[in-house]
Write a structure and sequence with these properties.
The chain is α/β, with parallel strands linked by helices and 346 residues long. It has 12 helices and 10 strands. It has a 6-stranded antiparallel sheet with strand order 2-7-8-1-9-10. Strands 4-3-5-6 form a 4-stranded parallel sheet, sandwiched between helices. A hairpin with a 2-residue loop joins strand 7 and strand 8. Helix 1 packs across helix 2. The longest helix has 21 residues. It is elongated and about 125 Å long. The N terminus is likely disordered.
């Protein structure tokens, strides 16, 4: 028990400040030990009358004084207590704790993996492993997919285009052509393979919700009627609305339909270009031809954007519908690759 607790328990003046009661206790002990007049000491120290304080022993007072001196020495030495908050900051770290948290720097480029120690495969080896994952599936059902990862910044211009591969991957695409049904353009569209041709019949079917096509192109002379029909709010969210920006409002609908049949669209998303490059039944030579055509077109698209943004090819990965991805090293086959005729799935 220290002097403060003794004085607060035995004193009848609990309302007096602790400093005054402590001072009065010290004066009283000094006066009794030295033999001086207690009233004179109180008057010298600015007190009109002595407070009613208990008789505190010198041992208790000495213990209290030593404790206070020790605490004061710790404060002067700027010692920090070992008590810590849940955040790991100590009680003495008020300045560091009260400062606002620093915001993490956001990446301006997409994070790329290091290919120095990554295992890479030739085209024939990658196809062999992929076919092992696709055992028992129809040759025309799974598709070879090619992913091209680019070194580029975020929130910049993106690559987007359409390409007809030398060996078509999907020939079941349904194409709608908006043009006068009795014109020469309608006849050319039907000969090229369009499944739906017309104007008012197409407008009525779309408004009723019967969208039975995968691509839609419009002849330039029918653009006004298409805009008056208000198809944008229906076809726009589905990505089917013809637009001059994407090359679906054309003059020669015949050649455009031929380009769409067997053609594929690719678009950069998060720094990656993806495209179906072949069917499981394709030979390695056919897949190689499609890959060369796709990579050549991608390089042209990157060159067109070189004046606005810098883009470089970082990695090319071949995968399929049910198989993982295999990074390609650019070789057609390795010394351990099987013969190409053994990789043709019929």
């Amino acid at each position: 028990m220290n002097a403060k607790s003794l004085i607060s328990q035995r004193s009848g003046h609990s309302s007096a400040p602790w400093q005054a009661r402590r001072k009065a206790a010290i004066i009283g002990i000094l006066a009794r030990n030295i033999g001086l007049d207690e009233k004179k000491l109180h008057r010298r120290n600015g007190m009109s009358a002595p407070l009613l304080v208990p008789r505190v022993s010198s041992q208790h007072l000495r213990t209290s004084v030593q404790l206070n001196a020790h605490l004061q020495a710790l404060r002067n030495a700027n010692h920090r207590t070992s008590v810590r908050y849940a955040s790991g900051k100590s009680i003495g770290d008020k300045r560091e704790r009260d400062q606002p948290k620093k915001k993490k720097k956001t990446r301006t480029v997409f994070k790329q993996s290091d290919l120095k120690n990554a295992e890479q495969f030739s085209l024939c080896d990658a196809m062999r492993y992929i076919q092992a994952f696709e055992v028992g599936r129809p040759p025309n059902s799974p598709k070879y997919d090619l992913a091209v990862r680019l070194r580029t910044i975020k929130n910049g211009p993106t690559v987007r285009n359409r390409l007809r591969l030398p060996h078509a991957v999907d020939t079941s695409i349904r194409i709608c052509v908006i043009c006068p049904p009795d014109s020469k353009h309608a006849e050319a569209a039907r000969n090229a393979g369009a499944s739906i041709v017309g104007e008012e019949t197409v407008f009525d079917a779309v408004k009723e919700g019967r969208i039975e096509f995968d691509r839609c192109i419009c002849h330039i002379e029918s653009t006004g009627k298409m805009n008056k029909a208000g198809l944008g709010r229906i076809l726009g969210p589905r990505g089917l609305m013809p637009s001059a920006k994407f090359g679906t409002i054309v003059k020669d609908v015949g050649s455009s339909v031929k380009g769409l049949i067997g053609g594929s669209e690719y678009r950069e998303r998060n720094g990656v270009l993806r495209m179906a490059i072949g069917q499981l039944g394709f030979t390695p030579e056919e897949v190689q031809t499609n890959i060369k055509a796709f990579m050549s077109e991608v390089k042209k698209d990157i060159a067109l954007l070189s004046d606005r943004i810098s883009k470089e090819i970082h990695e090319v990965v071949l995968s399929s519908t049910n198989a993982p991805g295999f990074t390609l090293n650019g070789d057609f086959r390795s010394p351990d690759s099987p013969p190409t005729k053994d990789l043709s799935v019929m």
